[in-house]
Design goal:
The protein is α+β, with helices and mostly antiparallel strands. It folds into 2 domains: about 5-100, OB fold (Dihydrolipoamide Acetyltransferase, E2P) (Beta Barrel), CATH 2.40.50; about 120-420, BirA Bifunctional Protein, domain 2 (2-Layer Sandwich). Helix content is about 30%, strand content about 25%. The chain has 13 helices and 18 strands. It has helices at about 55-65, 110-115, 120, 125-150, 185-195, 235-255, 255-260, 265-270, 280-290, 305-310, 365-375, 385, 405-410, and strands at about 15-30, 35-40, 45-50, 70-80, 85-100, 150-155, 160, 170-175, 180, 200-205, 220-230, 280, 315-320, 335, 335-340, 345-350, 355-360, 395-400. The strands form 4 sheets. The protein has an 8-stranded mixed sheet with strand order 6-10-11-18-17-16-13-12, sandwiched between helices. It has a 5-stranded mixed beta barrel with strand order 1-2-3-5-4. A hairpin with a 4-residue loop joins strand 16 and strand 17 (about 355-360). The longest helix is centred in the N-terminal third of the chain and has 23 residues, at about 125-150. The two termini are about 40 Å apart. Bound molecules: 4-amino-1,4-dioxobutan-2-aminium adenosine-5'-monophosphate and magnesium ion.
């Protein structure tokens, strides 16, 4: 029996007999020839069945195949410069595992609701597939970059007794009779683990009961959260910029085919360099005012303001030192102006908005206590968090990077729901 190969390795088998296990993506007939486009999850190839060269039952089997039927094809690999995949397979045998029912997703246009209801199948489409391959590579690149910078992966819990990012977007659940929440961010736990490991990170799902229906908000999304002991705001900004550059370099190298499939113009990505243009919140306000966008001091930016700011540079930008009044309780105030927090956002160009949010954290207990009080937080559930300030407390800083926002920007898809395998949004918990 010929060796079973993955289609991504086709080029290594030119001139050889191989077996490919996959699914029928498409089929064309021209009397004496059947052209079967196969996909196996790693690539695509056209297998050509020539009536004259095959036993009748094999050729007839080819003709029975419906879209997404599962098949094992045997044949010889030959170069074909006209093919988008560079090779084709001269089919010599076909084994059918299952003839698929009429496939609901065809080449005709479907509405988004229909496609999302069929997300379990839509994932097989080449564009969705390409987006999720970029996601996979970006996730791996994030981890590898942090490990190369001396970080240890120390995962934060998902079920928590507290909020991190404010109480208005908490998913509440019953924890054996006690109230618990799905984590909005692993940060508070990373503040503990960075004091144990020096540099730590978590990377996992986080949850926000966002009542907004924007293209940039999911109710469940994945966040990469590095945290560093003996570090301040500038260290966190510097790390975030270099992380973005490392991940961009990696996907541009490894996902060339996927960007091509997505018809994504990667010229802006190719031009991204650290350090990014940096603006204070106050400078950002003046820039917006010059463009006739009025934001009052003390108001947060929305998606529209972010889009204007980043499009001025056509490059990701850093905005730092937002007013403390619009930010969570844990941010260290700026010693030069305590109305401001030592925090920052990285804002992507092309309308993808905030991809990173981070800050230096309050490391002194009295101030932290005071902030928790003014935010109406119950100290008793944060006892452990306050205790961290009593045993070798040090300045520390970190950030959260939303992987879907990053992948959305990389791939240019219009809505974040296409950057996660099974999106959870205000109106969707199925499939
Ligand atoms: O700015 P956020 O809310 O920051 C935090 O949660 C910090 N505790 C992180 C930290 O410092 N360790 O969220 C961080 C990032 C945002 O910049 C964005 O990329 C992403 O998480 N994000 C979302 N992505 C998709 N859907 C949502 N609803 C998101 N909310 C935040
Ligand atoms: Mg934020």
């Amino acid at each position: 029996m010929p060796p079973t190969i993955a289609l991504r390795d086709l080029s290594q088998h030119e001139g050889q007999e191989v077996r490919v296990r996959g699914w029928l993506y498409n089929r064309r007939s021209s009397g004496k020839l059947e052209f079967l486009i196969l996909r196996d999850g790693t690539g695509y190839v056209q297998a050509v069945a020539f009536k004259k060269e095959l036993p009748e039952e094999v050729f007839e089997s080819c003709r029975r195949l419906t879209q997404e039927s599962s098949v094992i094809v045997s044949g010889s690999v030959r170069r074909d410069d006209r093919s988008p995949w560079g090779y084709e397979i001269g089919l010599s045998d076909l084994e059918i595992l299952h003839i698929a029912d009429e496939y609901p997703i065809g080449p005709k246009e479907h509405g988004v609701a229909f496609l999302m209801d069929h997300r379990h199948l839509w994932l097989r489409s080449s564009m969705q597939h390409a987006v999720l391959r970029v996601r996979s590579e970006a996730s791996l690149a994030c981890r590898e970059f942090l490990h190369s910078e001396g970080f240890t992966c120390v995962d934060s819990p998902i079920l928590t007794p507290t909020s991190c990012e404010g109480t208005s977007t908490l998913f509440e659940t019953d924890y054996f009779g006690q109230k618990a929440f799905l984590s909005q961010s692993g940060q508070l736990y990373q503040e503990a683990t960075c004091l144990a490991f020096g540099r730590s990170y978590c990377f996992g799902p986080t949850f926000r009961a966002e009542k907004s229906k924007t293209r940039r908000h999911l109710a469940e999304f994945w966040m990469l959260e590095p945290e560093m002991a003996y570090a301040g705001l500038d260290d966190a900004i510097d790390l975030a910029e270099r992380l973005c550059c490392a991940v961009i370099e990696r996907v541009l190298d490894r996902n060339r085919q996927d960007f091509k499939r997505l018809e994504r113009d990667t010229s802006l990505l190719e031009g991204v360099r650290a350090p990014f243009p940096r603006l204070t919140y106050d400078e950002a306000l003046s820039r917006l005012r010059e463009r006739d966008v009025e934001v009052k001091w003390g108001e947060d930016f929305g998606g529209d303001e972010e889009t204007v700011l980043a499009s001025l540079e056509n490059h990701p930008i850093v905005v730092h030192r937002y007013p403390t009044s619009i930010k969570p309780f844990y941010m260290q105030p700026d010693p030069e102006d305590p109305r401001l927090a030592l925090n920052f956002d990285v804002i992507a160009p092309e309308g993808y908005g905030e991809i990173v949010g981070g800050s230096q954290r309050i490391h002194e207990e009295p101030l932290l206590r005071e902030r928790m009080k003014s935010h109406g937080l119950d100290e008793s559930v944060f006892r452990w968090y306050l205790e961290l300030r009593r045993y070798g407390t040090v300045p520390h800083a970190g950030f959260g990077l939303g992987i879907e926002r990053l992948v959305g920007w990389f791939t240019g898809v219009p809505h974040l729901r296409e950057t996660i395998p099974f999106p959870r949004t205000l109106n969707r918990l199925y499939p």
